[in-house]
Amino acid sequence: MPAAVSRTPLPTANPGAGIDYNLFLDCIHCGLCLSACPTYEETKIEPDSPRGRIYLMRSVADGRLPLDEQVRTHLDLCLDCRACESACPSGVQYHKLIEPFRLAMDRMGAEAPGAHATRLAWVQRMVLRHLFPYAGRDRLALTPARLLQWSGLDRLFERLGVFKLLPMSLRQMHDMLPSLKPHYGKLPVTLPPVIDRGLNKRRARVVFFTGCVADAVYPQTNLATIKLLQHNGCEVVIPRSQGCCGALPYHSGDEKQALRFAAQNCNALGFGPDDLGPIDAIITNAAGCGAQLKEYGHLLRGTEFAESGAKLAAKVRDVSEFLMDLGPVKPTHPLRLKATYHDACHLAHGQGVRSQPRALLEMIPELELIPLPESELCCGAAGSYNLTQPEMAERLGERKADRILATGADAVFTGNVGCLMQINRHLKGKRPDLWIAHPVDALWAAYSGERGA
Hints:
By secondary structure, the chain is an alpha/beta fold. Helices cover 47% and strands 7% of the residues. It folds into 3 domains: 21-118, Fumarate Reductase Iron-sulfur Protein, Chain B, domain 2, CATH 1.10.1060.10; 190-324, Glutathione S-transferase Yfyf (Class Pi), Chain A, domain 2 (Up-down Bundle); 331-448, Rossmann fold, CATH 3.40.50. Helix 13 (219-231) crosses helix 25 (439-448) and helix 19 crosses helix 21 (355-362).
């Protein structure tokens, strides 16, 4: 990983000091964001709405309101799902307010009353900072869980109540684990296109961003994504030195680590000294990673990597977005299912990608795609939100599970690792037969004729 990325330090006495004040003024207080906000939908309290939080942040920045425990609580409860941005007629860039404001609150000191970092137990801070952002460590840490699942001891321990003896933070993480599949191992740096299905030449050369938690928990989805790209005529490059996109540390208050990861990826993905040759796109299948990568120009502003970050961001595409632009090869194997689709927040609101995953699913023979009520309302995953705000995450997870069950679907698809884990947690006890997967898992099953569990 590169050395610390240098940026001109910002004043810390006022958490709003480093924010462009005009961003506050974009909000006209119309209230159209209220019904789009998951926390406001649950609490019906104005300070738990985007409009209310902007008022709080601006008041603190103006010196009209102290940054006390109550203000921090309302700001910390925000999921940063960006649904308000989709609803806003004035183009308010809410994430450019809430994200730097909360980072500045953390820089003011974890010892301050109500500071964000103090809401995390030490084990949670360790996991968020030193485990989750590293794919190799994640795979190693999941080895005991895999052994328990494969041996059947996991179900036995569940019946005996053994997991209830774990600390709450570890129990939450265990409850979110899906059925873990074997990892695909070490792949070549370059994978050739598959020239068949009517294709007679390479159509594109792409870099695949593997991610960290997603690669450890859902390796079958990464492998399906790579195979889909190959079978659509793409040469796939998988750089060895790529790392976490930086979203997890950034949203848990560690901007320095996020900047280091961003700089590392600028080099690894061909926008530094590591020349990968010409590429058409950087592909990701995780909504949170895609949204973060597309923000590298903004994240790295004022650093020596600003230009590289902007160039990298311009190349990033969600796999569904890329395939629909490319023109996907039609799948031929039927999936006789009623399925529904949940919009991952950082795909729908963060990247504006809504129709493409649905269009890919609708290409699958005999798959019936049925609408999901409140599809764009956050499921409560939101990166590390399950750890920092477990009560609200639980409420939103149950709400999402109820909406999915009401559809009567046999499968639910969504394009983000956090959403998959959250939905799995809230449905596995109610509908253990429900297939919960990424759209690319369904699409690859329709290409190959082999459906994963």
